[in-house]
Amino acid sequence: MKRGKNYIESTKLFDKSALYSAQEAMDLAIKTSKAKFDETIELAVKLGVDPRHADQQVRGAVVLPHGTGKKVRVLVFAKGEKAKEAEAAGADYVGAEELVEKIQKENWFDYDVVVATPDMMGVVGRLGRILGPKGLMPNPKSGTVTFDVAKAIADIKAGKVEYRVDKTAIIHVPIGKKSFGTEKLLDNFRVLMDAIIKAKPAAAKGQYIKSVVVSSTMGPGIKINPARVLE
């Protein structure tokens, strides 16, 4: 894979084989971010689980103390009073069957998170094949299937992120922007890692946190010592 000049220059700023402390890694992620826009700082955590087994799934959601730096658009499936509640709480889109039809017919994806009240899941279920592959399907485990739509929207707008292990046993999550600086990124990192560690399935054996890598959108990956993630 051909790499750009900035990327190659960035790799000279650190030892690619070294394991860094979380603080050192955040410093380096900022230093190696060379793009002209405010790059997202992303985390990739490799877990010692087998995602093919239902009892080794790792999934949840957590509110990052400083948010992600991204404006999140929320779509809510609700009716009646709950629809009014969602609108008052700042949802970007609120509706029911008509929105299901819009998504099905127009391939409409102008939103980042989908919330639904439990009574709407029979309707929303029709969108499983469309929303599922994009990670947008509402789920009780991530707090996006709830009657408390106001709290769900407030949490999402405040910086709630969902983490979910993929088929390669890796969790990918944004933890903020380059402009946040080291301390805010560290705060977000620690809260997220604490949640992932607490979500360890009972069926997972051996080393749980295999590797932790942080990088900016366009920058190289910096390895964090998996034994020191909460220091």
UniProtKB/TrEMBL annotation:
PROSITE patterns given in the database record: RIBOSOMAL_L1
Keywords: Repressor, Ribonucleoprotein, Ribosomal protein, RNA-binding, rRNA-binding, Translation regulation, tRNA-binding
Gene3D superfamilies to which the protein is assigned, alphabetical: 3.30.190.20, 3.40.50.790
CDD domains: Ribosomal_L1 (cd00403)
Membrane found in the keyword field: no
Superkingdom to which the source organism belongs: Bacteria
GO CC field: large ribosomal subunit
Gene Ontology MF terms in the entry: rRNA binding; structural constituent of ribosome; tRNA binding
HAMAP family: Ribosomal_uL1_B
Function: Protein L1 is also a translational repressor protein, it controls the translation of the L11 operon by binding to its mRNA.
PANTHER family in the record: 54S RIBOSOMAL PROTEIN L1, MITOCHONDRIAL (PTHR36427), LARGE RIBOSOMAL SUBUNIT PROTEIN UL1M (PTHR36427:SF3)
Family according to the record: Belongs to the universal ribosomal protein uL1 family.
NCBIfam families: rplA_bact
Protein name: Large ribosomal subunit protein uL1
Organism: Fonticella tunisiensis
Lineage: Bacteria, Bacillati, Bacillota, Clostridia, Eubacteriales
Gene from which the chain derives: rplA
